[in-house]
Amino acid sequence: MATNMDRRRNNAPSGGTHAPVFARTLREPEYLQTLRPTRARGQNELRRIYLQTGIVPSASGSAYLEIPSSTSISSSTLIKPASSLKIVASIQGPKPLPRSAPFSPSLLLTTTVKFAPFATRQRRGYIRDSTERDLGVHLETALRGVIIGERWPKSGVEVVLTILEGDEDGWWGDAHASGSGWGLLNVLAGCITVASAAITDAGIDCVDMVCGGVAALVRNPDSKDGKDLIKILDPCPVEHRDIVAACAVGYLASRDEVTEIWMKGDVGSDPDALIEGATHASVGSLSVVKEVLLESLQAKFQKQIENSQGAQKRKAEDVEMTG
Amino acid sequence: MAVPSIALPGQLLGSADKYFPGPGTHIHESSIYASIAGPVLTSPTPKTTSTTTKPSPLLSIQRPDTSTDPGILGTGSGGGGTILPEVNSVVLALITRLGPRFATCEILVINDVVCRESFQGQIRREDIRATEKDKIKMEESFRVGDLVRGTVISLGDQSNYYVSTSENEFGVVVARSEEGRLMFPVSWKEFRDPVTGRAEARKAAKPF
Questions:
Q1: I need a surface site. Which of A8, A194, B24, B116 has the fewest CB within 10 A?
Q2: Each residue's pLDDT tens digit, B94-111
Q3: CA distance A285 to A278
Q4: Cα separation of A78 and A217, whole Å?
Q5: Residues in contact with A276: Cβ distance below 8 Å, sequence separation at least 6, in sequence order
Q6: How does the average pLDDT of chain B come out, rounded?
């Protein structure tokens, strides 16, 4: 931690980003469990996604993704019911490479993923840590497979993602829920989706739109021995006490190709089913991306069409001067 | 199959034997797919050399206009202006440095589109004019701060695009005299100060 300190800023005290809840103040231990959020949607149902492109004026392309938490905040407790995911992506470039860089016949892709200091339950530093670098590498492999780099020789593009709020690894009420890393899979899938929307907004040539999706195997809370597993799409780690395995993919729907897989946990004998579930989840988020991009395209080109029509009209109205 | 009016990356546009792939598209398994988002344009292919069959129409995807003003937080913000110099594109460049063998310039405008970022270019001495190449003198052709119209002849090495001004239409378009006044061209190799009337040597572009 000491090596990762930022000496140029006033660092906030490390620790939580939310009001602490002391176990002793709770009236009875069972009371805590009644607050635990449960999954209200179906097994194959995704959380709702909010997406908007073109939000950073200075960037050549940008997008904002939010997966709001479905459970409402109750007034009787300070424990956050469920986390939501909020990511901003901005694209810088394509721009000429710096003078020192060697010749490159295709586009050089750089991805930077950074958690905001307040993004997670545990406060993050200002300097990128290993998790963020890891996410960046995963994102880069996911995007490298879709971009047609040969169309942009001698140039580089930077994909900068800021996670304003990350999906939690577990429920805040559980003492040791953090650190399991289940939330990171959701974050990666969100990063892939929002980066893809931003790249399309920037007008960089791609073979397809890559979208992220997550599927998980969880223990069925209704079963008696707790041994049978169910497959769910888009798991919200807060809502599940026992996640056994999870998988995030970057999936090209129209080509039926996968550019990135990240799997975690005990998958069992049939990993393909989990991957397939994740691709189904990514198709779900793709439909949102498509709608949003079409909407922004219409707004973008509406003005252009009106302008050209106006120019023609003006030309027609011009009267030739005669002596 | 009808061509869609608006396309997103990865969308099937048509078969490769019915259309030619234009800008913004790519071919995958003998079909043309969109690679950027935008309206699909079908235009007749320009006549190329010895095509015996009827030429197929060209499918391309339009990029957003760069002239539309980038509104703050609007959908029109961002995008546009991200084009690269290509061979044969006409550029406007600012001379930044003069060397004995070449002039360094900053490419600011490519084919009437203002770039987001400038590109580094180089005008070699032998590319300044087409005739009497051995007699060209750098300081009689350009000065630092001149605005030059030229054409890209090569993508060049790691950092420079190679620009040539060896046609009549290419050369210095805006030049300032030693006193800092804008000068006007009087011949293909001379600019004149409007006040002092002193002439300075430049490789002037032919005015339209």
A1: A8
A2: 999 998 888 999 988 888
A3: 11
A4: 29
A5: A215
A6: 81
Q: What is the pLDDT of residue A261?
A: 92
- Token reading at B171: 């050369």
Return the residue matching tokens 């949102």. A288
The per-residue DSSP string of B18-32 comes to TSEE-TTEEEETTEE
- Chain centre distance of CA A121: 18
Q: What's the CA gap between B122 and B115, in Å, rounded?
A: 17
Q: Check CB contact of A259 with chain B, cutoff 8 Å.
A: no
Taking the C-alpha atoms of residue A177 and residue A169, their distance in angstroms, rounded to an integer, is 6
For the stretch A152-176, pLDDT in tens is 888 889 999 999 988 877 776 666 6
Are A90 and A198 contacting, i.e. CB atoms less than 8 angstroms apart? yes
- Considering only CB atoms, B6 lies closest to which of A57, A58, A294, namely A294
- What's the pLDDT tens digit per position in B164-192? 998 888 989 998 888 888 888 888 888 88
**Secondary structure (3-state) at A48:** coil
What is the number of helices (H) and of strands (E) in chain A?
4, 9
**Six-digit token pair at A12?**
């906030």
- Give the pLDDT band of residue B68 (cuts 50, 70, 90): very low
Inter-chain touch A207–B70, beta carbons under 8 Å: no
Residue A254 DSSP SS3:
coil
State the pTM of this model.
0.82
